Amino acid sequence: MSYDAKFRVWRGDEGEGELVDYTVEVNEGEVVLDIIHRLQATQAPDLAVRWNCKAGKCGSCSAEVNGMPRLMCMTRMSTFEPDETITVTPVRTFPVIRDLVTDVSYNYEKAQQIPSFDPGDTKPGEFRMQQVDVERSQEFRKCIECFLCNNVCHVIRDHEENKPGFAGPRFLMRIAELEMHPADVADRRNIAQEDHGLGFCNITKCCTEVCPEHIKITDNALIPMKERVAGRRYDPVVWLGSKLGIV
Ligand code: SF4
Ligand code: F3S
Ligand code: FES
């Protein structure tokens, strides 16, 4: 069954913009990205939108649909009433380039700042591990880098000034992934706390709620990292050792 849906789409660039109303045909089984593509094909050929896989795997089509951070390609039109107006805006935490496309360089800068996997003296092919030891790191590897978690985190959502000192849930989770990996020998607790702002996180769990891969970011990455940092800070032996410069 086809019907005409009312869409309100943000149009503009980094300078200024506005919400523009459109009426677009919807067919059975379609997702929000299909409607945005039809809008481009029929009424707004200059509408800028970023997408790639249309299968929820590339993380490119992040936007806010009726105020909720979502992948447009995974948001079914059947979740809305046919007479509802659907508002599509760019993700708010990153600067707009044009229309629905934002500049997500912040995320790549943070990714670069995290020290990479450190196998110590172990040579490639030497390390053996049990599946159970890497399950947690594998959960975090499901990340498709849609940055919806970073977009929704209140620490940076309306606080540009916090961006230099906070890597956001996606990259604090990356630090946790390496810290929990049995073959990585680096101690990443200070890096998380001092360089990447783990202490800013007050466990609101908004990041976990929006993750399209259903990764338990807060419970499995952020809270355990906080516990490890606290363990280091409040363990009297570690405290004495750090004063003597031996741990
Ligand atoms: Fe997206 Fe989830 Fe990865 Fe965050 S952790 S970037 S929400 S897939
Ligand atoms: Fe932000 Fe997630 Fe912590 S939304 S405050 S990083 S629990
Ligand atoms: Fe790839 Fe939506 S187009 S996740």
Automatic annotation (TrEMBL):
Its cofactor is [4Fe-4S] cluster; [3Fe-4S] cluster; [2Fe-2S] cluster. SUPFAM superfamilies: 2Fe-2S ferredoxin-like, alpha-helical ferredoxin. It is an enzyme of class 1 (oxidoreductase). InterPro entries: 2Fe-2S_ferredoxin-like_sf, 2Fe-2S_ferredoxin-type, 2Fe2S_fd_BS, 4Fe4S_Fe-S-bd, Beta-grasp_dom_sf, Helical_ferredxn, SDH/FRD_Iron-Sulfur, Succ_DH/fum_Rdtase_Fe-S. It comes from the Bacteria. Signal peptide: none annotated. Residues 5-92 form the 2Fe-2S ferredoxin-type domain. CDD domains: fer2 (cd00207). This is Succinate dehydrogenase / fumarate reductase iron-sulfur subunit.
